[in-house]
Known about the structure:
Elements: H1 10-20, H2 30-50, H3 55-78, H4 80-90
Helix pairs in contact: 1-2, 2-3, 2-4, 3-4
Amino acid sequence: xxxxxxxxxxxxxxxxxxxxxxxxxxxxxxxxxxxxxxxxxxxxxxxxxxxxxxxxxxxxxxxxxxxxxxxxxxxxxxxxxxxxxxxxxxxxxx
Length: 94
C-alpha cells in the first residue's frame, strides 16, 4: 500500500483517538485532537530525517506543532487535570 507523508493510517489514527478519548464516542475533544496531531508529528518528523530538503513537509510540521501548542494552552486554561493527564499519556514536555 502506498503511504503518503503526513497522513497516518486509519489504524494509527484509531489508536491515537483511543489514547485521548474521554468516552467511547469522543472523537473531537482537545485531548483527542492533541493525540492525533502527536501521531502525525511523529510520522512527519521521521519523514524529514530521511528527506532533509523537503521544505513543504517542514512547513506542515511547524503548523502542526503550533496547532498542538494552541490546543494544549487552551486545555491547560480550561481543565488543568486533563492537561496534565494527556501530557503524561503522550510523553510530552511542558
